[in-house]
Automatic annotation (TrEMBL):
<keyword id="KW-0812">Transmembrane</keyword>
<keyword id="KW-0472">Membrane</keyword>
<protein>
    <submittedName>
        <fullName>Na(+)/H(+) antiporter subunit G</fullName>
    </submittedName>
</protein>
<dbReference type="GO" id="GO:0015385">
    <property type="term" value="F:sodium:proton antiporter activity"/>
</dbReference>
<feature type="transmembrane region" description="Helical">
    <location>
        <begin position="12"/>
        <end position="38"/>
    </location>
</feature>
<dbReference type="Pfam" id="PF03334">
    <property type="entry name" value="PhaG_MnhG_YufB"/>
</dbReference>
<feature type="transmembrane region" description="Helical">
    <location>
        <begin position="77"/>
        <end position="97"/>
    </location>
</feature>
<feature type="transmembrane region" description="Helical">
    <location>
        <begin position="50"/>
        <end position="71"/>
    </location>
</feature>
<keyword id="KW-1133">Transmembrane helix</keyword>
<dbReference type="InterPro" id="IPR005133">
    <property type="entry name" value="PhaG_MnhG_YufB"/>
</dbReference>
Length: 117
């Protein structure tokens, strides 16, 4: 094995390592979002927790997948999905909270009043 081949192999393993770490960080944030949905009391706090951690989890998860794929058409598709998630996630969270507010729910209400769950 020549030195150039060795450096290519080391670079390939480093890329896979970075991708795996990013995917694990993304999965952690998505797990925290799921716990937030289960633990927080009303739709407003749940939406807040999910919108923040979901965006961060998607960034790391999809970024890790794009790095793992390398420069291919699949990585371009993954980056397009990531861009759409970043554009649409705040809009979806805002629409959810606004519809809950228009239905008569107020922040700090108890679970008995939460009809969207």
């Amino acid at each position: 094995m020549t030195f150039a081949e060795l450096m290519i192999e080391v670079g390939r393993w480093a890329t896979v390592g970075i991708a795996v770490v990013m995917i694990l960080i993304g999965l952690f944030f998505l797990f925290v979002a799921a716990v937030g949905v289960l633990r927080l009391p009303d739709v407003f706090t749940r939406s807040h927790a999910v919108s923040l951690t979901d965006s961060l989890g998607a960034l790391f998860l999809l970024g890790g997948l794009a790095i793992y794929q390398g420069f291919t058409t699949n990585s371009v598709k993954i980056l397009v999905v990531l861009m759409l998630l970043y554009l649409l996630n705040p809009v979806i969270a805002h629409a959810t909270v606004r519809s809950a507010f228009r239905c008569g729910l107020r922040p700090g209400s108890s679970d008995d009043d939460d009809v969207l769950v």
